[in-house]
Amino acid sequence: MLTHPNFDPVAIAIGPLQIHWYGLSYLAGFALFWLIQVQRLKLPHVAAARWTRDEISDVLFTGILGVILGGRVGYVLFYDFSAFLADPMYLLRIWEGGMSFHGGLIGVLLAEFWHAHKYRRRWWEVMDFIAVAVPVGLLTGRIGNFINGELWGRVTEVPWGMVFPHAGAGPLPRHPSQLYEAGLEGLALLLILLWFARKPRPVMAASGLFLIGYGVARTFVEFFRTPDAHIGFLYGGWLTMGMILSAPMWLSGMAIMIWAYRRNGER
């Protein structure tokens, strides 16, 4: 049995200014996204599509807005709407925590319409480009969750079970589900997408593969992750909100990939 190190969530404190590890995990994800995409400019088919460092910076900035705004709104709507009804200003208090990947994804999908219009690109072309490196943000974000000791897993007897100080219900070992997600939604999916995108693929294919990969990985990890306390298990005592929100992702991802390849691989 392992014990969570119970890290101080504040990485740097200078007087009243506090920089949290979770915020740094987001910054690390954004920086790594930029570096990965810049390296991909060396691929002939990426260079031929006229992607540049400046445009990568622009698409990242637009994506950051979508992640932050969509992630917060999504969390409030999907996971804590009652708190919003009781206090509408709760939506703006991002520093209190609460971000949803599914909401962030919707935010990015909407925000990148502006980028596609600005650069006169097809929206799907932009989404395919972004999808390849998105998992690196999931990797760093889940590590941030682990450092914070939040979103822990269910009680377990596996040798690597970990006691999380703030999990409640006594010092019981739990699955370190944050690390499962970092490994599957983050590192594994990133490597798969980088491998897939090393060659030209049909438009929509990379986006479809991302949706399948994330949806399947998230659904799998939900069997080990403790659902949000104020929501709990749904419909029969085993289904979770994460599963419900992920199902449309992998289903639509399959449909998108089938459609992409049925269009004879046109780019």
TrEMBL record:
Keyword Glycosyltransferase attached: yes
Record field: transmembrane: 20-38, 59-78, 90-114, 126-147, 179-196, 203-221, 233-261
Record GO terms (molecular function): phosphatidylglycerol-prolipoprotein diacylglyceryl transferase activity
GO cellular component: plasma membrane
Chain sites annotated for binding a 1,2-diacyl-sn-glycero-3-phospho-(1'-sn-glycerol): 142
Keywords, comma-separated and alphabetical: Cell membrane, Glycosyltransferase, Lipoprotein, Membrane, Transferase, Transmembrane, Transmembrane helix
Pathway assigned in UniProt: Protein modification; lipoprotein biosynthesis (diacylglyceryl transfer)
PROSITE patterns: LGT
Enzyme class label: transferase
Keyword Transmembrane helix: yes
Source organism superkingdom: Bacteria
Family matches, as InterPro entries: Lgt (IPR001640)
Membrane protein topology class: Multi-pass membrane protein
First-listed, main subcellular location of the protein, grouped into a coarse class: membrane
Single biological process term from Gene Ontology: lipoprotein biosynthetic process
UniProt-listed Enzyme Commission number(s): 2.5.1.145
Pfam family name, one: LGT
Localization annotation: Cell membrane
Protein family according to the UniProt entry: Belongs to the Lgt family.
Function summary: Catalyzes the transfer of the diacylglyceryl group from phosphatidylglycerol to the sulfhydryl group of the N-terminal cysteine of a prolipoprotein, the first step in the formation of mature lipoproteins.
NCBIfam families attached to this UniProt entry: lgt
Protein's name in the database: Phosphatidylglycerol--prolipoprotein diacylglyceryl transferase
Origin species: Oceanococcus atlanticus
